[in-house]
Amino acid sequence: MTAPPTHPVDVLLLLTHANHVLLALREGTGYADGQWNLPSGKLEHGEDAISGIIREAHEEIGIRLDPTEPRMVTAVHHRNTAGLSRVGLAFAVAFDPACHGEPFNAEPHKCAKIEWFPADLLPSNTYPYTAACVRAYRESQPFILSGWATH
User: Fold this and answer.
1) pTM here?
2) Each residue of 33-46: pLDDT tens digit?
3) Which InterPro entries does the entry mention (predicted)?
């Protein structure tokens, strides 16, 4: 008998401002280094998705979110090139510096820099999971597959 599959649940932040989205350049993590990524992370044991996205936003880019702000915009079932899969819940928040504070690279040991990019013109080295989240958000798709064979 095989064990049931486990799929980590990620929360991903689409912080938007004037048709731009904030991305972080991974560095020093040993995984997807040199690729642009949404501020994101895995839910911790016993943590709900809203608490998780608030925590990740603060840990990675130093901003404060109110629990009423994050709006879930899509779910992504992603499979990486090693065949491991995960489920991502992507939340959008319209950036307001007066409420959120200015974003900054709060994890320089994992991130080279953060930068705003047009949502319709992501860098070529954007991690596929992130690109799928942004595409689904822009196209108002409530669910998208990423890294799976097309049907």
Assistant:
1) 0.94
2) 999 999 999 999 99
3) NUDIX_hydrolase-like_dom_sf, NUDIX_hydrolase_CS, NUDIX_hydrolase_dom
